[in-house]
Design goal:
By secondary structure, the chain is an alpha/beta fold. The chain has 19 helices and five strands. A five-stranded parallel β-sheet has the order 3-2-1-4-5, with helices on both faces. The chain binds flavin-adenine dinucleotide.
Length: 418
């Protein structure tokens, strides 16, 4: 299996070789085969925005008629939908993180041991164990395998969804606060109340036959009808709030500003920040938070460093200014030091979405304020427009989103490339 692209150059190459095949995507995407040739493997690159959904959508519509690629576009837009949904219900993220630490402290030791064994690929159900090993070894699982495995964890092993989602979050190279948390909630039956996703052996035999036949031990535990819903309690406040407001254009308050790059958006050169002339650019990597707070796998930490380094390198070329990746145990303090070192009066960044970077903002803003430095956050117009549609379920979202995409395709404009 070729590794998931983790630089912009590799992401563009992978995307351009997949682009001619997006017309076959709808028919092939659900089949889980070795090497994953039926899917794009672009998720980590899209998640860190080494390549943007705008680029993928625009180039898809330039190359193919909408009717032939609707399923592909729909999947690409699921990420935006989940992000928009979470932006308006941030407590779902906060409460998940809180529950993960509570459960680790309070669950009986035998349940914690069982959770560790299932996550280590020792459940005794060979095909599920193969998926756990694949995730640990490669940092990737096919979407269908993610659904089966999450369902197995929740409804067959009767383990709390929060800890399963945490296992994914620690290992997936594309780990995305919105897609991961909300997909797990969907499998658990919390996202669409009353609807759970139940794993069935016949479904694996149909879509992953080579894998499930190779690994049949214990498969009676997932025989059709054997897995029944295991209800999960709702802990989060899912009341919809307002979408946070961000400007989509930036006017510096003085010449002394710098750009902060972070893992939610590593594409400043194709963004409203593209034409700026910053004094400096920096990204921050925080090993102690990765390890001690989020317990990320080594593979995941390396991939985070790699995408940050790629962003910093491209920024150096694009802006012709100092562009560095700073290893730090306290991002707020280090960002303040960096801004002072370059005598910045303002730091500008693409607005992070709900998740770890967003969680840093209050401390960061307070620290920069105390130094007399302003923090300004900007969001692409296309993101704001798409997020605003994620008020309820995916299908009303898609109805409106697809209408906009069709109009853009008909007009052959670069409407979504803002
Ligand atoms: C339990 C569970 C956990 C998940 N956790 C994550 C996660 O942490 N990060 C993540 O990026 N995706 C997550 N997904 C969604 C999906 O599985 C992955 O995006 C997809 O498998 C990535 O592989 P790909 O790039 O080859 O996808 P492709 O099939 O090639 O799809 C193209 C792109 O569309 C988007 N996409 C496709 N399917 C989905 C989906 N169901 N939800 C959201 N976006 C989608 C992704 O950006 C993906 O790269 C999760 C799904 C489940 C069921």
């Amino acid at each position: 299996m070729s590794p998931a692209p983790l630089t912009r150059a590799d992401a563009l190459a992978a995307w351009h070789s997949f682009l001619p095949h997006v017309v076959e995507y709808a028919a092939r995407r659900n089949h889980v085969v070795e090497g994953h040739p039926n899917v794009s493997r672009l998720s980590a690159a899209l998640r860190y925005r080494l390549i943007s959904e705008d680029e993928v959508i625009t180039e898809t519509l330039a190359a193919h008629p909408f009717s032939k690629v609707e399923k592909w576009l729909q999947e690409v837009c699921w990420r935006r939908y989940w992000k928009g949904w979470l932006e308006m219900r941030p407590d779902v993220w906060t409460s998940w993180r809180r529950r993960v630490s509570e459960l680790r402290r309070t669950l009986p030791p035998d349940i914690l041991r069982k959770a560790e064994a299932v996550a280590a690929g020792q459940s005794g159900v060979a095909c599920m164990d193969a998926f756990a090993h694949e995730l640990i070894d490669t940092g990737y699982l096919h979407n269908h395998a993610r659904m089966w495995w999450a369902s197995f964890w929740i409804h067959a092993e009767k383990l709390p969804w929060e800890l399963g989602a945490d296992f994914f979050f620690r290992h997936l190279l594309d780990a995305d606060p919105a897609s991961n948390t909300l997909s797990w909630r969907w499998v658990a039956g919390l996202q669409t109340p009353g609807k759970t996703y139940l794993v069935r052996l016949s479904n694996l035999e149909k879509y992953a036959s080579a894998i499930s036949l190779k690994a049949s031990a214990g498969s009676n535990r997932i025989a059709d009808g054997a897995v029944t819903p295991h209800p999960q309690k709702e802990w989060a406040d899912t009341t919809r709030g307002a979408l946070p407001h961000y400007e989509s254009a930036y006017s510096p308050i003085s010449e002394r500003y710098g750009i902060w790059l972070h893992p939610d958006d590593l594409l400043p050169e194709v963004s409203p920040l593209a034409k700026l002339m910053p004094k400096a650019v920096a990204a921050f990597s925080n090993q102690s938070v990765y390890q001690n707070h989020y317990h990320l796998s080594d593979h995941r930490i390396k991939s985070l460093r790699k995408v940050l380094a790629d962003g910093v390198t491209r920024a150096a070329v694009h802006y012709s200014c100092s562009s560095e990746m700073i290893e730090s145990a306290n991002t707020a303090l280090s960002l303040g030091d960096w801004a002072q070192r370059h005598q910045l009066e303002e730091v500008v960044a693409m607005a992070p979405t709900v998740g770890p970077v967003h969680d840093l903002l209050p401390q960061l803003r307070q620290h920069l304020n105390s130094l007399g430095i302003q923090l300004t956050l900007i969001r692409r117009e296309s993101g704001t427009q798409a997020f605003a549609l994620a008020k309820a379920g995916f299908f009303p979202f898609w109805e409106k989103m697809s209408r906009q995409l069709r109009t853009a395709a008909d007009a052959q404009t670069q409407f979504f490339f803002s």
